[in-house]
Write a structure and sequence with these properties.
40% of the residues lie in helices and 17% in strands. It is an alpha/beta fold and 199 residues long. Strands 1-2-3-4-5-6-7-8 form an 8-stranded parallel beta barrel. Strand 7 (149-152), helix 8 (160-165) and strand 8 (170-173) form a beta-alpha-beta unit. The radius of gyration is 16 Å and the shape is globular.
Length: 199
């Protein structure tokens, strides 16, 4: 599974570039705009046609997922813990409606305990982060976990084979795309290397 996570802030040409990525075969894009208001994100979504919205997993303002028929919702660690008593039933309801549900983990033991509830999970940081300072890689191995685990943190084309060797089901990229001078070219290379590795 190949995932692209958006930059935290909106920027010029972002909508056009996300559409290009999906047109090039990207099936899952995580929309992570932590400082965006509900109205800002709603206006942004209105710029996308249905075929693009269907590839989007939303990190906040989750009610927009149903309104725009997006792919699904991503829950932060804090949301899992705060809503623990009702969270499982909430996830089951979302899945029954046809939405995918994902989450993030930073510790392997916690992931093993909770991963089965989700369609897939991010585990990070696997390598030193490109987009965040102070996030050193932990070189996780997940061979003994049957659930779909996606490697996040410092992912570049050169590291895709290492991720595969460590038992991951795919990669999520952020900095390698959006900090590149040519995001579309960077994605094309990552996608090619991903497809050559995860056959």
């Amino acid at each position: 599974m190949l995932v692209v996570i958006t930059a935290e802030v909106f920027f010029t040409d972002e909508i056009f570039q996300i559409k290009q990525l999906i047109d090039l075969g990207l099936k899952t894009v995580h929309i992570r705009k932590p400082k965006a208001s509900y109205s800002e994100l709603k206006s942004w979504f209105q710029e996308f046609e249905p075929q693009y919205l269907a590839a989007m997993m939303l990190h906040q303002h989750h009610t927009l997922v149903e309104e725009f028929c997006c792919k699904g919702m991503h829950f932060k660690e804090k949301q899992r813990n705060v809503q623990a008593h009702t969270f499982k039933s909430k996830v089951k309801i979302l899945k029954n409606k046809g939405f995918q549900v994902s989450t993030s983990f930073h510790e392997i033991n916690e992931l093993k305990f909770h991963a089965a509830l989700f369609d897939y999970c991010f585990l990070s940081p696997v390598f030193k982060s490109i987009s965040k300072t102070g996030y050193e890689g932990k070189l996780f191995e997940v061979h003994d976990i049957s659930q779909k685990i996606i490697a996040l943190g410092g992912i570049t084309s050169e590291k895709i084979a290492k991720v595969h060797q460590r038992g991951f089901s795919g990669v999520a990229v952020l900095g390698a795309i959006w900090l590149s001078e040519k995001p579309i070219d960077a994605f094309t290379k990552i996608k090619r290397d991903y497809e050559n590795t995860f056959k």
